[in-house]
Design brief:
With about 750 residues, the chain is α+β, with helices and mostly antiparallel strands. It has 24 helices and 25 strands. It has 6 domains: about 60 residues, Orthogonal Bundle (Chemotaxis Receptor Methyltransferase Cher, domain 1); about 190 residues, Vaccinia Virus protein VP39 (Rossmann fold, 3-Layer(aba) Sandwich), CATH 3.40.50.150; about 130 residues, Beta-Lactamase (2-Layer Sandwich), CATH 3.30.450.20; about 50 residues; about 100 residues, Beta-Lactamase (2-Layer Sandwich), CATH 3.30.450.20; about 100 residues, PAS domain (Beta-Lactamase, 2-Layer Sandwich), CATH 3.30.450.
């Protein structure tokens, strides 16, 4: 056997602390694998020894979750090892369904279910075999694991496209619902799967299981722990139950508790161990009072008492159930010894210890014969006994329920054998050479046996190494899956970054504003298309160049103060500067300098061409000045209420009121001969677009009561914001009255 590693006190103390504080018992796990997985967490948190890591756990209780996720290698997938699942589908599941009949419930237990792919795979197989409705009524699947976080994932039953690659397309369509970028397992089937935290080494097993799936869990356990777990799995199975192991668990196939159904794919059936159960009935106990026994029983006892061979019957509880007359006389077993434990009788240990051979006979279900054992009936009389140990089988189910011991006095036979041996001494001398050769052969046989034992030891070491390599392979696969997941996230982030960059470039190119991004050293990082068109330099020529050193026909040196102000105070600055664009045209720009963000010390410089805007403002200012000084009255009216909103100085002077007073009046207030309703009807064709303008001759009344004749020309501007009516009033007091014709 391979030597066990020397225990490390700090390591054992750490395992004990984990068990006492969180109830996580790792003592049955292989020390090499367990030590390596814990070392991964120690390296992650930056501690050097197990004592320091224990102190870290005491200070940071949240580390327990990361430790559990690291130690428990959750490597699983849907229909992992498809060939094995195919055998399960075609051979095992139909047999379980047939054995259960039409009424009995079917119970399945998935040990070490991780994130749920395994129990859901089992559920799909039984749902396919029974139909969805029957499956939901009769099948219960118990899925257990130590890792509570993995159980949460399993209960959610939400998987990525990569997770369901092993699911056949037809099953994927029937049992999964596609939502965005994930697949959710069927809700009805999911209700039949019960998840729970369970330690198969310490906790009581679930019973009456038809199919027990325990794949690549036992390879992480020490051999002593495996010897504890296997009987638990045996107990959990129903008499006709099946055990489905992982492909790496080869040594477990040698257990007497299970027989192989499909050795290649590690599928086994339970072997009933009837001898382990306490028999319901023992042999009839011989008593003095047998008046109520059947005649056949009395006849059988009479025959046994008359037999010359001494017989003792030992029941499964280890008590004397029957002893005939010859046994009472030969080995001194009396009526009072019936019902007593066999170990209390002298015959149990004299002439030799018989309890071990009795157990061997019952366990191996064969007859054991002990020849010519020396027995002292009295201090003066010594005889030879031949003892035969025979298991008794139940006539109905074939189980072993008692042992029959027969004692035969072979003193004379032994003496004759001694005489025969003496007579054969001369013959033995004549064949001395043959005996010598036989001894040489025996020596060679011993050497071969020694070599065979060494080979067996080597084989066990190789098996242990193979299990360790399989464990490392599982760990590597887990790490590989994590890396693939990380790579997928990085790929999506890269695609998003490219998309954002393309979007940002499109936005910057479409803007009618020059945008320049510089870093903390005033080096240009971005230069959009407006800047290229305005200053005549392409982005490739400018990016990487100091902004202060650019010669673009614009006084960039005048922005240095704003740059320093923004860079130090992180507040935006703005000013208007004149420059010359690449065509030599004067250009007036509003330049705004703003910080990027708190994390990035760079800045954004925005150039807005306001040359035309300033020119329009000047034109508007000139136009307003001209209109304001005009002698004609000009009014802006609200089309809905006919209130004055704006007027020129000529109107204010003519009416004798201020602009503020005028905004409180309507057009009807200065036209005494026309009412408000009549005015609205008058302007309806104008507002409806039926007429371009309306001219009205009326009388205007000033604030001081003075009246004068006037002609009003009204136009409507409905496309403007806000909509307005413009009324131009001409005083007609000085017009000459034309003579009548």
């Amino acid at each position: 056997m391979a030597e066990k590693s020397v225990p490390e006190p700090q390591f054992e103390d750490l395992l004990r602390y984990i068990q006492e504080s969180r109830g996580l018992d790792f003592r049955g796990y292989k020390r090499t694998s367990l030590r390596r997985r814990i070392a991964i967490r120690m390296e992650a948190v930056g501690v050097e020894d197990f004592a320091a890591y224990q102190a870290h756990l005491e200070v940071h209780p949240g580390e327990f979750e990361d430790l559990l996720n690291t130690v428990l290698i959750n490597v699983t997938s849907f229909f992992r090892d498809p060939d094995a699942w195919e055998v399960l589908k075609t051979d095992v599941v139909p047999e379980i369904v047939a054995t259960a009949g039409d009424q009995r419930a079917i119970r399945v237990w998935s040990v070490g279910c991780a994130s749920g792919e395994e129990p859901y795979s089992i559920a799909m197989l039984f749902a396919e075999a029974l139909g969805l409705q029957t499956f939901c009524e009769r099948v219960k699947i118990y899925a257990t694991d130590l890792d509570e976080e993995a159980l949460k994932t399993a209960r959610a039953a939400t998987y990525t496209a990569r997770d369901v690659e092993g699911v056949p397309p037809d099953l994927l369509d029937r049992y999964f619902e596609r939502t965005n970028h994930h697949y959710v397992f069927n809700r009805e089937v999911r209700r039949c799967v019960i998840f729970g935290q369970h330690n198969v080494v310490r906790d009581a097993p679930i019973s009456r299981i038809d199919l027990l799936v325990c794949r690549n869990l036992l390879i992480y356990l020490e051999s002593e722990t495996q010897d504890v777990v296997l009987p638990r799995l045996h107990y959990a199975l129903a008499p006709d139950g099946f055990l489905f192991l992982g492909k790496a668990e080869t040594q477990l196939a040698r257990s007497a508790l299970f027989r192989p159904v499909e050795m290649r794919h590690r599928i086994f059936a339970k072997v009933p161990q009837e001898w382990r159960r306490t028999a319901g009935n023992t042999l009839p106990v011989a008593r003095a009072d047998r008046g109520d026994a059947p005649p056949q029983m009395l006849l059988a006892e009479t025959v046994l008492n008359e037999a010359g061979t001494a017989y003792l019957v030992i029941d499964e509880a280890g008590k004397v159930a029957l002893a005939n007359a010859a046994a009472r006389q030969l080995v001194s077993v009396g009526e009072a010894d019936i019902g007593r434990p066999f170990q209390d009788l002298p015959i149990s240990y004299r002439p030799l210890e018989l309890r071990a051979p009795i157990e061997q006979a019952m366990r191996e279900r064969r007859v054991i014969r002990l020849e010519h054992q020396e027995y002292h009936q009295s201090p003066a009389e010594t005889i030879r006994l031949t003892i035969e140990l025979r298991p008794l089988f139940h006539p109905q189910d074939g189980s072993v329920y008692a042992s029959l011991l027969s004692f035969t006095n072979t003193t004379q036979i032994h003496a004759m054998q001694r005489e025969l041996e003496a007579a054969q001494e001369s013959l033995e001398q004549s064949i001395e050479e043959l005996q010598s050769a036989n001894e040489e052969l025996e020596t060679t046989n011993e050497e071969l046996q020694s070599t065979n034992e060494e080979l067996e030891t080597t084989n066990e070491e190789l098996q242990s190494t193979n299990e360790e390599l399989e464990t490392i392979n599982e760990e590597a696969r887990s790490s590989n899956e994590e890396m693939e997941s990380t790579n997928e996230e990085l790929r999506l982030q890269a695609e998003q970054a490219v998309s954002y960059k393309t979007y940002l470039e499109s936005v910057l190119r479409s803007m009618n504003v020059g945008v320049v991004v510089i870093d903390a050293a005033h080096v240009v990082r971005s230069w959009n298309r407006w800047s290229e068109n305005a200053w005549g330099l392409r982005a490739e020529e400018v990016v990487g160049t100091a902004f202060d050193a650019l010669d673009i026909g614009f006084p960039v040196h005048l922005l240095r103060g704003d740059l320093l102000t923004v860079q130090s105070g992180r507040e935006a600055a703005e000013q208007v500067l004149e420059g010359v664009d690449r065509r030599g045209r004067p250009i007036l720009c509003r330049v705004r300098v703003a910080p990027l963000s708190a994390e990035d010390a760079g800045m954004v410089i925005a150039f807005e061409d306001i040359t035309e805007e300033r020119r329009r403002e000047d034109y508007t200012r000139y136009l307003g000045r001209i209109m304001g000084q005009a002698l004609n009255e000009i009014y802006f009216l609200d089309p809905d209420t006919l209130h004055f909103t704006l007027s020129n100085r000529g109107a204010e002077k003519k009416l004798g009121c201020t602009a503020t007073q005028l905004t409180q009046m309507t057009l009807a207030d200065v036209m005494p001969s026309v009412g408000m309703d009549e005015l609205k009807r008058l302007f309806e064709p104008l507002i409806a677009g039926e007429k371009p303008e309306i001219v009205v001759e009326t009388v205007i009344r000033a604030v001081d009561g003075r009246e004068y004749p006037a002609e009003i020309c009204v136009q409507y501007y409905g496309e403007e914001v806000p909509r307005i009516l413009v009324a131009v009033v001409h005083d007609t007091s000085d017009r000459q009255q034309l003579p009548a014709a």
